[in-house]
Specification:
The protein is built from ten helices and seven strands. The chain is an alpha/beta fold. The protein has a domain of 182 residues: Rossmann fold. Strands 3-2-1-4-5-7-6 form a seven-stranded mixed β-sheet, sandwiched between helices. Helix 5 links the parallel strand 4 and strand 5. Helix 6 runs antiparallel to helix 10 and helix 8 packs antiparallel against helix 10. The longest helix has 18 residues. The termini are far apart.
Amino acid sequence: MSDRSRRTTFNDAADSYAAVRPGYPDAVFDNIAGVCPAGQVLEIGCGTGQATRALAERGYRVDAIELGDALAARARAHVADYDTVSIRVEDFETCSLAGGYDLVASFSAFHWIDPAVGYRRCADALREGGHLALVWHLHPGAVWPFAQDIQKIYEERYPGARDGEYPTLDERVAKRSRAIADSGLFAAPEVSLVPWELNLNSADYLRLLNTFSDHRTLAPAVREALFAEIEALIDGQYGGVANRRYVTAVFLAELAKPAAADV
């Protein structure tokens, strides 16, 4: 689980989050529709509403929960033309929840939830036969030139923070799959991996980095030096274009069927 003390840092960056945080490839929602083609969705941690709008566009009715009021305001504006979406500012771990959802979904947010609480609350919110969809953007590792050069800067300016000490992509996928299955509340998840990439100019790349909680909590002098070197690399060696590659992992798990009673 992530350092929960950082989970409120995003609210102060709502404008940047809306401007530069990437959304999700269509294939992500195609995979979700494969197990839940329609119905009522509970979305945990909707942020500025990238996935919320994509779900609404596909005909889902969405009840979204967001911890940050500024983020929620951005999300409401983003889905203002859909009357099938409601967004409330609450903490998922303690808010009141109705049952009967067809799908409980979280996009790049569930790692901020205490798993001892989160999986049980998700299970309780679902109808029989309902599904859990957990989605994360994962870094494929420093396997292309730009990422390798960025890694060298992190090793010097921010040692231990980035890919050098990260588990592999396969290890991260396996760990998250085990966490879902080990909850005892869901079947082993089906996992789909969607590779894609994003090109940003240096200003937007730094703005994106500044929406990440680990970067936002750096000492200002450390962050300034780190960002200056990254900007110089992008503008000097890569023609002003930063290439960021992703693998978006979609974990889809059906609510476990209740055990048969002894007779």
